[in-house]
Specification:
- The protein is an alpha/beta fold.
- The chain contains eight helices and five strands.
- It has a five-stranded mixed sheet, sandwiched between helices.
- It is elongated.
- The termini are far apart.
Length: about 180
C-alpha cells in the first residue's frame, strides 16, 4: 500500500499540489499536516508511520516535507527500514524499496555528511590562521584601554560612576567589570 504524507508550514499555504502529486502516484491514503518543518515531533507524520505495515511505502512530494535535517531524515529512514516500510520522494526520484534506491539514499547521506565535515574543517582552519595572525573573532570590546584610562581619571576626580560610564559610552556594569572595586568606588 502507498501511504501519502503532505505537509505545509502555515494555514496560508495550500496542500493542493502535494495532494495531486500523491494521488497521481497512486497513494491509497493521504495524511495531511500543518506544522513547521523545523519540528521533529509531527503527530500526523507519526500517525502515518503507525498506520503503515510491513511492505507499505510512505510517499511524499519532496524530502523537505518529511525532514529538514539529514540526521532527522536518516533516523526516520532507519526506523522505516527496521519496520520494513519503504520510502519514496517523488521530486527527488528517491525510492528505498529497491536496492538501487537504498544505495542512492545512502550515497546522498554520505555526500551530505562529507560536505558538512569539509565546511567544519575549512572553518576551523580559517579561524586558526586568523588567530595565528593575531585576529580574534567575536564582538569588538566596548571597553578599550583608552576608555579605561579615561574612566580611572574621571573616577579619581570624583565623578560618579554613572556619569563616567555615560561619558565613555559604556554601561555601569561594564565599567565595574573592568575596574577593580577600589578604583570604581
Amino acid at each position: 500500500m502507498l501511504i501519502g504524507y503532505a505537509r505545509i508550514s502555515t494555514r496560508s499555504q495550500n496542500l493542493d499540489a502535494q495532494r495531486d502529486a500523491l494521488v497521481a502516484a497512486g497513494c491509497d491514503r493521504i495524511f495531511e499536516e500543518i506544522a513547521s518543518g523545523a519540528r521533529t515531533d509531527r503527530p500526523v507524520l507519526a500517525e502515518a508511520i503507525d498506520y503503515a505495515r510491513t511492505g507499505d511505502t510512505i510517499v511524499c512530494m519532496k524530502l523537505d516535507r518529511v525532514a529538514r535535517s539529514l540526521s532527522h531524515l536518516t533516523g526516520l529512514m532507519t526506523m522505516l527500514e527496521e519496520r520494513q516500510i519503504g520510502f519514496r520522494s517523488l521530486t527527488e526520484a528517491l525510492d528505498t524499496t529497491s536496492p538501487g534506491g537504498r544505495l542512492v539514499f545512502h550515497i546522498f547521506g554520505a555526500i551530505a555528511q562529507f560536505e558538512r565535515d569539509l565546511i567544519i574543517s575549512r572553518t576551523k582552519s580559517g579561524l586558526a590562521a586568523a588567530r595565528k595572525r593575531g585576529r580574534v573573532g567575536g564582538r569588538p570590546l566596548s571597553m578599550t584601554p583608552e576608555k579605561l584610562n579615561a574612566a580611572r581619571r574621571l573616577l579619581k576626580s570624583g565623578t560618579p560612576a554613572r556619569e563616567v560610564a555615560s561619558a565613555i559610552g559604556v554601561s555601569v556594569p561594564t565599567l565595574y567589570r573592568h575596574l577593580p572595586a577600589s578604583q570604581a568606588a
